[in-house]
């Protein structure tokens, strides 16, 4: 591992005490104080030190720190907490003063492509220089404690020896915790203008060496003053915190030296003063020159400006020679000797006996003075007390004569002891092995070291733990609750110093590695402090993360730094960091995806909007900062860009605060759109007020759109506002298909406007924001279709301008804009124009992108779209015009099945008469326009209770209904300006919200084109009853089935009177089981009707319908073309069950016949809707256009129920059509067709979807109602028989009990063979209360049943005792045969259809017979 590079702040601290004549000489030569001059020669290159094992350690550079001892004395008495606070404030002020210049410099360099600041930042360099320039000793560490004291005099003094003597006898004012273990050095400056000659100066130097030792140097300097030397650039000195002017050191009186020595002792050390920024006494007066020679020139008024020194090359070489000799010949050997001596003490204390004794002292107590570490000093005496040895050296003190290093304790409350000084000296000298061991010892003892170990150790995960421990030790325990905790200023500053040392002392590659992640150390050092230097820590961590490639983490830390700087008022740098975070969040992450991914998702690889959860907040802060700094134009652009729809995430970023600070998850997240909008309005108003029309140059565009082009449409006076556009298109297509077989006239495009007639552009507006907005002066831009470059809104077009439109949050509205044209033309509506809050004009296009083209290979390879689709309107002369509207347009609420009479006003508003009129309604709407049909009410006469109705049995859609103008109007035509009412009956068949859409098609005469008009009415249908049906076989000979109709009143307050129940079927005739009586169903009550069903074969079309379906489905399965023929007509027998009202002389029955035009029309429409929906659901893979050619309207086996009802209190009536049960047995009529399709050799297809479609069609046909399969035989066991028998003694003959089994063939077409088998000796269960049936006699019965035939098999029981015998233990085997045309079944041989069934007693039904012993009753 390469030797670590120590930060400058960990270099030896050398204090200088200069006599006044030194400062005068330097000022006269235009030079700064001596410490600043010597600092310019640091660091020294190529310095070699030795470890305790005498191993040489080369140093590429060896840094020193020089300072004035008077400044140290003044600053060291300041309270450390107070000084740390001043230090943080001072660095914050420097950052605030220089930040704007830094930002301008970086922006200029970025524009010019410079590389100076690619790997560093000026703000971090400033903070680092401020921290490294701190040279005031601290009680927590010894890096700033003086290592050496240089006493400097010049030969210009009247008596240099006396001046040097005064310096040595000066008392020093340091607190007790300052470690004064240091080396004294004596410097004599000999300027060229000194009164002493060079030989005399040499003699003076020899005398000094003789008196004070070899740590002395004579420094000859020329220092010319006229002219001054050319300035020489030097490195800038690190900035240092100005001394607090209110602090003064206490006076000290020089004490006489002891006999035989040339040393002086400072005054006795006063007791430690309390931590206070104000000392208790002032410092000693400064030394003054005495006996100043008259030939010394006065000091030059030249002022030193820094960054340069006015020295000659000879003087520079002399000073450099002095600094190198001072370091290599004095300082380093003395430090090495100290390390050797202290290491001996440290090693002896770590031996086992010493560790045991120290453990004993810790357990049983000992004085602190006896166990405290020692401080070394130098002198001829082997031991000198700590009080008298501060900064004192013996007369023979020299590098070669260092006899011993004594160990005495450091007084005061600091943590700087001998072991720490040993670790610091070993670190400075490069003896890292010894240093690491001592630092580890100190760390384990809780006396520091964790902050230095990361600088000396190899990169490992343990270094992160050392850094965390160092920072946590500074801050101490923190409260567990979420209360804000303010870190003390001293802890903030120490953490900042640690971070600076780590960043400077650890190689950047290792510092940013995944092992260390040093950028996180900086963040932890910053903590939650709200100071500019801690914000710079976040910023530098972000900068390092950006270099590392962690861009999102860097953006987050830039954002934190910007927020902290904004709070402290440093806005330029805060804006810069906000911009950095903004750019990083907008920078798309690298995505190595296949190009086909982007094509499949229809997205561009460069399309990236950034992190929408963070970017708006950053842009908002940038806008506010720009507005407060005066850049209103940029602020307006940022605020305008914030007006975007919010993106909702699953994770709530800003939880809502409830009462008492609690977070309420139930309240919605507050919207920021209101704040953004208000800031934009304020800033834009201010900008327009102050800058005039300058806002036009910004080209501001709203980032959001309010208009919805796809929902915007043209509405003419004859068009309906409501209604689905797809419904109108369907109605127009139905008319075109209907008239294509009758003529070639086309239906004119609906929506054409007339000259001088107002039409409307219904502009669909949607507010995408969560705040209310106001759009002013809303209008549309209209131009002629032929003149593409012409100006909007030509002279012959008048367009309405709407003043103010208020849109609520997320509100959607349709705003009609009136347009009037005075001449025929084709107009194009291109744009919507409005003003946003009467401030910003906006224009939005109403064009819709054309469809994607895939016709040519080139189009399929790329994205090619058709031209944009614009809104067009044709304005023609007012010829054929018809306006339609309902007479009563109030809200309409109907009951399900209710009849409602309606009227539509028709007005000829054109210039030509109307002679032909048609009307079309929706597919599900049931309307009757036959004025002569009357009401669908009961007949006044006495119609029969049964009737036969012939149905077309076709699923063909309804055709347009012709309106006879002669029937509703007094003339065969509707002249211009005339009006007429069109009555019709509406049947509300389906519940829910409905739109009644009517399309009127009209023309003047035959051969002319058709025109259309629309009208819509919305109505609501509510259910009032629930009707259900069920059927079961009947044992009676009069009917085969019993059909049950259940009616439930679901209303809450109305009584429903059931007026009539009618049944319709092609194969079954129903009769009431009971005499009908008036039925009034109260709310939430149920009424039942029982009907008996028996076969009906008098009608036509039932068998033909089944054969038709079989033939068509066979063609479908064999993939043959389906011929367009429709099903044959079908006769339906209708039975009416109406209550009988008894009058005085006759029975009155009000029966509603089903053959009336209105009732028959409504039933046909309702049945077609039900069948079409069921067919589409059962056969989705058969095209809907083929349904009418394959499937009939009615299934001959189905019984439909028509229930007529009335609300007497409200005088409302109607009917409900219900598809009832399917009666009879089915015998898989399509089985052979399905098997043939399964075994058919089909054509192979390369498309898997075709194969799946074939299989789906086959499966649907196999499961459809036309292929149903049922057990045709119903078995009835006659139970309840009671037989009396005398079981008295002597008459023990068993009792013969007759049992009857009835079999009924429910099939209308196929015979069935039945085999009844009775068990001879059934098993008995002792716990069963019923006895097993002991059948006797014939146990097997066989019979072939013709269609609808009934057979009863007689058996008997052999009852040996009285009791109840269960009629169980029997099985019935049924086999279906093929139908035969012969009347006698015995002539035709039996042909099985291979359909077999097995019946046993049904679970839950236990018929029984009872045998009573009459002998016991006698």
Largest sheet: 6 strands, mixed
Give the number of DSSP strands. Answer: 51
Mean pLDDT: 82
- The count of helical stretches stands at 31
Helix content: 25-40%
End-to-end Cα distance, whole Å, is 126 Å
- How much of the sequence lies in strands comes to 15-25%
Low-confidence stretches: 249-305, 352-413, 649-666
Based on Cα principal axes, name the global outline: elongated
Q: By helix and strand content, what is the structural category?
A: alpha+beta
Radius of gyration, Cα only, in angstroms?
Answer: 56 Å
Summarize the structure in words:
By secondary structure, this protein is of the alpha+beta class. Helices cover 29% and strands 24% of the residues. It contains 31 helices and 51 strands. The strands form 13 sheets. Strands 11, 13, 15, 17, 18 and 19 form a six-stranded mixed beta sheet that branches. Helix 6 (160-168) links the parallel strand 5 and strand 6 (183-191). Helix 4 runs antiparallel to helix 5, helix 19 (551-568) packs antiparallel against helix 20 (571-586) and helix 22 (615-628) packs antiparallel against helix 23 (632-641). It is elongated, with a radius of gyration of 56 Å. Mean pLDDT is 82; it is low at 249-305, 352-413 and 649-666.
């Amino acid at each position: 591992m390469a030797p670590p590079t120590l930060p400058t702040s960990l270099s030896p601290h050398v204090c200088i005490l200069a006599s006044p004549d030194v400062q005068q000489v330097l000022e006269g030569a235009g030079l700064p104080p001596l410490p600043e001059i010597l600092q310019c020669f640091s660091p020294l290159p190529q310095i070699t030190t030795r470890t305790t094992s005498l191993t040489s350690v080369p140093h590429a550079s060896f840094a020193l720190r020089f300072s004035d001892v008077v400044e140290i004395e003044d600053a060291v008495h300041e309270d450390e907490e107070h000084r740390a606070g001043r230090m943080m404030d001072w660095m914050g002020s420097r950052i605030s003063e220089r930040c704007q210049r830094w930002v301008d410099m970086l922006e200029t360099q970025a524009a010019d492509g410079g590389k100076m600041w690619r790997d560093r930042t000026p703000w971090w360099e400033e903070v680092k220089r401020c921290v490294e320039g701190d040279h005031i000793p601290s009680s927590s560490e010894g890096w700033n404690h003086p290592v050496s004291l240089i006493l400097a005099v010049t030969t210009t003094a009247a008596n240099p020896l006396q001046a040097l003597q005064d310096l040595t006898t000066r008392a020093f004012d340091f607190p007790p915790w300052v470690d004064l273990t240091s080396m004294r050095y004596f410097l004599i400056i000999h300027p060229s203008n000194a009164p002493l000659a060079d030989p005399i100066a040499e003699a003076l130097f020899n005398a000094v060496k003789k008196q004070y030792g070899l740590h002395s140097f004579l420094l000859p300097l020329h220092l010319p003053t006229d002219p001054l030397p050319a300035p020489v650039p030097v490195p800038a000195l690190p900035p240092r915190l100005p001394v607090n002017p209110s602090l003064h050191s206490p006076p000290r009186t020089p004490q006489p030296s002891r006999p035989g020595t040339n040393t002086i002792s400072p005054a006795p050390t006063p007791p430690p003063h309390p931590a206070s920024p104000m000392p208790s006494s002032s410092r000693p007066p400064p030394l003054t020159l005495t006996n100043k020679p008259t030939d010394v020139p006065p000091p030059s008024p030249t002022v030193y400006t820094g960054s340069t020194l006015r020295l000659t090359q000879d003087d520079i070489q002399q000073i450099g020679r002095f600094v190198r000799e001072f370091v290599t010949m004095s300082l380093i050997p003395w430090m090495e000797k100290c390390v050797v001596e202290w290491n001996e003490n440290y090693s002896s204390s770590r031996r086992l006996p010493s560790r045991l004794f120290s453990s004993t002292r810790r357990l049983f107590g000992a004085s602190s003075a006896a166990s405290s570490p020692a401080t070394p000093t130098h002198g001829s005496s082997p031991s000198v007390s700590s009080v008298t040895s501060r900064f004192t050296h013996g007369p023979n003190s020299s590098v070669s004569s260092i006899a011993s290093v004594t160990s005495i304790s450091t007084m005061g409350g600091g943590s700087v002891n001998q072991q720490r000084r040993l670790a610091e000296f070993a670190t400075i000298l490069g003896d890292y092995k010894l240093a690491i061991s001592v630092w580890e010892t100190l760390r384990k003892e809780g006396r520091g070291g964790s902050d230095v170990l990361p600088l000396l150790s190899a990169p490992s995960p343990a270094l992160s733990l050392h850094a965390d421990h160092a920072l946590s030790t500074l801050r101490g325990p923190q409260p567990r609750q979420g209360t804000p905790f303010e870190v003390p200023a001293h802890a903030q500053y120490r953490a900042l110093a640690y971070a600076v040392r780590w960043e400077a002392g650890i190689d950047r590659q290792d510092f940013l590695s995944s092992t260390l992640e040093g950028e996180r150390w900086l963040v932890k050092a910053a903590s939650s402090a709200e100071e500019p230097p801690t914000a710079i820590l976040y910023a530098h961590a972000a900068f390092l993360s950006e270099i590392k490639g962690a861009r999102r983490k860097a953006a987050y830390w830039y954002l934190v730094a910007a927020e902290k700087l904004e709070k402290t008022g440093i806005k330029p740098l805060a804006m810069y960091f906000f911009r950095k975070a903004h750019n990083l969040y907008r920078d798309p992450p690298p995505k190595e995806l296949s190009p086909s991914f982007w094509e499949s998702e229809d997205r561009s690889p460069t399309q990236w909007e950034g992190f929408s959860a963070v970017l708006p907040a950053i842009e908002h802060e940038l806008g506010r900062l720009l507005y407060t700094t005066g850049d209103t134009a940029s602020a307006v652009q940022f605020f305008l860009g914030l007006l975007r729809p919010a993106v909702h995430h699953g994770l709530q970023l800003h939880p809502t605060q409830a009462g008492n600070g609690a977070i309420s998850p139930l309240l919605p997240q507050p919207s920021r759109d209101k704040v953004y909008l208000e800031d934009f309005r304020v800033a834009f108003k201010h900008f327009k007020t102050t800058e005039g029309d300058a806002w036009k140059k910004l080209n501001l565009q709203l980032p959001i759109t309010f208009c919805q082009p796809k929902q915007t449409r043209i509405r003419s006076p004859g068009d309906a506002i409501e209604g689905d556009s797809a419904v109108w298109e369907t109605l127009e297509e139905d008319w075109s298909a209907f008239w294509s077989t009758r003529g070639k006239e086309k239906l004119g495009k609906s929506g054409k406007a007339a000259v001088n007639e107002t039409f409307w552009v219904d502009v669909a507006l949607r507010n995408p924001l969560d705040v209310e907005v106001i759009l002013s002066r809303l209008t549309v831009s209209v131009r002629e279709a032929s003149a593409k470059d012409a100006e909007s809104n030509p002279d012959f077009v008048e367009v309405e301008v709407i003043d103010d439109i208020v849109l609520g949050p997320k509100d959607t509205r349709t705003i009609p804009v009136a347009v009037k044209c005075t001449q025929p033309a084709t107009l194009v509506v291109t744009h919507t124009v409005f003003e946003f809050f009467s401030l910003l004009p906006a224009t939005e296009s109403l064009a819709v992108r054309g469809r994607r083209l895939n016709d040519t290979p080139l189009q399929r390879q790329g994205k090619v779209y058709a031209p944009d689709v614009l809104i067009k309107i044709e304005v023609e002369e007012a010829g054929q015009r018809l306006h339609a509207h309902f007479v009563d347009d109030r809200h309409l609420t109907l009951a399900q099945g209710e009849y409602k009479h309606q009227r539509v006003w028709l007005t000829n508003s054109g210039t030509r008469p109307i002679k032909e009129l048609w009307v079309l309604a929706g597919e599900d709407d049931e309307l009757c326009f036959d004025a002569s049909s009357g009401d669908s009410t009961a007949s006044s006469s006495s119609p029969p209770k049964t009737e036969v109705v012939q149905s077309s049995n076709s699923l063909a859609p309804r055709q347009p209904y012709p309106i006879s103008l002669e029937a509703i109007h007094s003339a065969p035509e509707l002249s211009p300006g005339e009006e007429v009412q069109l009555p019709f009956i509406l049947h509300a068949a389906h519940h829910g919200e409905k739109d009644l859409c009517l399309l009127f098609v009209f023309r003047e005469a035959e051969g002319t084109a058709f025109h259309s008009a629309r009208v819509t009415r919305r109505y609501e249908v509510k259910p009032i009853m629930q009707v259900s049906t069920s059927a079961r076989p009947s044992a009676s000979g009069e009917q085969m089935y019993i059909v049950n109709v259940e009616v439930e009143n679901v209303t809450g307050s109305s009584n429903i009177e059931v007026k009539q129940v009618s049944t319709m079927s092609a194969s079954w005739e129903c009769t009431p089981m009971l005499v009908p009586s008036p039925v009034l169903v109260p709310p939430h009550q149920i009424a039942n009707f029982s009907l008996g069903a028996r076969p009906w074969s008098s009608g036509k079309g039932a068998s033909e319908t089944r054969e038709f379906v079989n033939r068509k489905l066979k063609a479908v399965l064999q993939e043959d073309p389906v011929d367009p023929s429709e099903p044959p007509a079908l006769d339906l027998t209708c039975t009416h069950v109406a209550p009988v009202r008894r009058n005085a002389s006759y029975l009155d029955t009000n029966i509603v016949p089903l053959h009336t035009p209105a009732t028959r029309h409504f039933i046909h429409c309702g049945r077609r809707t039900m069948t079409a929906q069921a067919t589409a659901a059962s056969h989705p893979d058969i095209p809907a256009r083929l349904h009418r050619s394959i499937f009939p309207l009615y299934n001959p086996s189905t019984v439909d129920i028509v229930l007529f009802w009335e609300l007497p209190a409200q005088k409302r009536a109607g009917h409900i059509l219900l598809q009832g049960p399917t009666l009879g047995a089915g015998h898989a009529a399509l089985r052979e067709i399905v098997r043939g399709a399964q075994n058919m050799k089909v054509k192979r297809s390369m498309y898997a979807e075709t194969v799946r479609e074939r299989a789906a069609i086959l499966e649907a046909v196999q499961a459809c109602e036309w292929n149903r399969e049922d057990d045709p035989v119903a078995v009835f066991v006659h139970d309840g028989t009671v037989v009396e028998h005398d079981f008295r003694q002597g008459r023990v003959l068993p009792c013969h009990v007759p049992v009857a089994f009835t079999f009924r063939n429910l099939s209308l077409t196929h015979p069935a063979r039945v085999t009844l088998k009775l068990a001879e000796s059934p098993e008995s269960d002792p716990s069963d209360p019923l006895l097993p049936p002991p059948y006797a006699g014939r146990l097997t019965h066989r019979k072939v049943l013709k269609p609808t035939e009934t057979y009863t098999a007689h058996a008997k029981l052999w009852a040996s005792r009285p009791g109840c015998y269960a009629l169980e233990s029997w099985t019935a085997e049924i086999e279906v045969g093929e139908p035969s045309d012969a009347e006698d079944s015995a002539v035709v041989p039996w042909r099985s259809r291979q359909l077999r069934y097995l019946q046993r007693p049904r679970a839950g039904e236990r018929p029984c017979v009872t045998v009573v012993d009459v002998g016991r009753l006698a």
